[in-house]
TrEMBL record:
Its main location: cytoplasm. ATP binds at R49, S134, R186, Y226. Keywords: ATP-binding, Cytoplasm, Nucleotide-binding, Nucleotidyltransferase, Transferase, tRNA processing. This is Threonylcarbamoyl-AMP synthase. Belongs to the SUA5 family. Pfam families: Sua5_C, Sua5_yciO_yrdC. L-threonine binds at T26, H58, R112, A132, S142, S172. It is an enzyme of class 2 (transferase). It comes from Symmachiella macrocystis.
Length: 320
C-alpha cells in the first residue's frame, strides 16, 4: 500500500509532466496533469488510445470546478450534492484553459470528484486537475488492483500508487448536463434509478447516436471496449452450453447447478448481490482470460441497478 511519501513523490511527478497510475473507487486510472497537453499526449500514447475519445478530469472538491467549467447549472448542483465525491462524471461546458486534447476538441469537459483516500490525498497535494482514463491498453479489461496496472502497462507508467482493490469495480456513470436535462452517456457506479430519484427523468440516447469514428461525448461509448483477449460470447436464452471440443469458461452472477462442462467458472456473488458482482467483475474476467480458454461464455445480468452497467460492459466486450 502506498505511503504519504509515495503520494508526495507521485504529486511531484505529475506536476513535472509524468504519468502516475492512481487508485480510485471505480478502477485504477492513468493520471496526467490535465492542463499540460504534452503530459496528456503521453496518456494517449501509453494506452494506444484514439484522440477522438475524451478523458475524465478529476478534481478534489467542487471549488476546483470554477477554473474548468463555464456553467454549473442547478441540476448539476443537485447531482453533486448527492453523489460527489463518488462514481459520477458530469459533462459540462468547458473553459478555454482545458486543452482540446483532453476533450477530443469538444466544447465540453467530463469532470468528477473521486471517492478514494489515496486519490483525494494526491489531488490535494499535487494542486492540479488530473486527466485519468483507466490504466490499461485501450479497449482492454480495466484494472482494479495495482498489480493489474503493472501487468498491462509496466514501464509505460512512471509510478504506480497502490490503494488496494477498487471498491466499486466498474467505471463511473457519465451524464451530460444541458440546462435541466440529464442524458446518460455511460452506465456505471451510480445507477439510473439513483439518478432518477434526484433529477427525475433521464434521457437515454439510442445505441447508434454517436458514430465510432467521430469525437465521442464520453469515454467508454465505443462498440468494442472492456474486452479480454479470449473471445467472449454473451449468452442469450439457452445458448449457454460449451461448444464441443473447446475449453470454455463461464462468467455468471450465481453458478448454475451443473458446471461440469466448464474448465473454469467465475461466480461473481453467491448471494446474487450486484454490488458484490461489480466489485469482482473485471478481476474475474481477467482470471478467465489467463486460464488458457478457447472461449468465455458470460451470462447477462438483470437489467436494473448495477446490472445495467455490467451488461453494458459485457455487450462491448463480446466478440463482434
Amino acid at each position: 500500500m502506498s505511503t504519504s511519501a509515495d503520494i508526495s513523490h507521485a504529486a511531484q511527478l505529475l506536476r513535472d509532466g509524468g504519468l502516475v497510475a492512481i487508485p480510485t473507487e471505480t478502477v485504477y486510472g492513468l493520471a496526467a496533469h490535465a492542463l499540460d497537453p504534452l503530459a496528456v499526449a503521453r496518456v494517449f500514447a501509453a494506452k494506444g488510445r484514439p484522440n477522438f475519445d475524451p478523458l475524465i478530469v478529476h478534481v478534489p472538491e467542487r471549488e476546483a470546478l470554477a477554473d474548468l467549467v463555464s456553467e454549473f447549472p442547478a441540476t448539476a448542483v443537485k447531482l453533486a450534492e448527492q453523489f460527489w465525491p463518488g462514481p459520477l462524471t458530469m459533462v459540462l461546458p468547458k473553459r478555454d484553459i482545458v486543452p482540446d486534447i483532453v476533450t477530443a476538441g469538444l466544447s465540453s469537459v467530463a469532470i468528477r470528484i473521486p471517492d478514494h483516500p489515496v486519490a483525494q490525498a494526491l489531488l490535494k497535494e499535487a494542486g492540479i486537475p488530473l486527466a485519468a482514463p483507466s490504466a490499461n491498453p485501450f479497449g482492454r479489461l480495466s484494472p482494479t488492483t495495482a498489480a493489474h496496472v503493472r501487468e498491462q502497462l509496466g514501464d509505460a507508467v512512471d509510478f504506480i500508487l497502490d490503494g488496494g482493490p477498487c471498491r466499486v469495480g466498474v467505471e463511473s456513470t457519465v451524464v451530460q448536463i444541458t440546462g435541466d436535462q440529464v442524458q446518460l452517456l455511460r452506465p456505471g457506479g451510480v445507477t439510473l434509478e439513483e439518478l432518477e430519484a434526484v433529477v427525475g427523468s433521464v434521457v437515454i440516447p439510442s445505441a447508434n447516436a454517436h458514430p465510432s469514428s467521430a469525437a465521442q461525448p464520453s469515454p467508454g461509448t465505443l462498440p468494442q471496449h472492456y474486452a479480454p483477449g479470449t473471445p467472449l460470447i454473451l449468452a442469450t436464452g439457452d445458448d449457454q452450453a460449451p461448444a464441443s471440443g473447446k475449453r470454455t469458461g463461464l462468467l455468471c452472477l450465481t453458478a448454475p447447478s451443473n458446471t461440469i462442462a466448464y474448465v473454469v467458472v467465475e461466480e461473481l456473488s453467491n448471494t446474487g448481490n450486484l454490488t458484490e458482482a461489480a466489485a469482482n467483475f473485471f478481476a474475474a474476467l481477467r482470471r478467465l482470460d489467463a486460464a488458457g480458454l478457447d472461449v468465455i461464455i458470460a451470462q447477462p445480468f438483470r437489467d436494473t441497478g448495477l446490472g445495467r452497467a455490467l451488461n453494458d460492459r459485457l455487450t462491448r466486450a463480446a466478440t463482434k
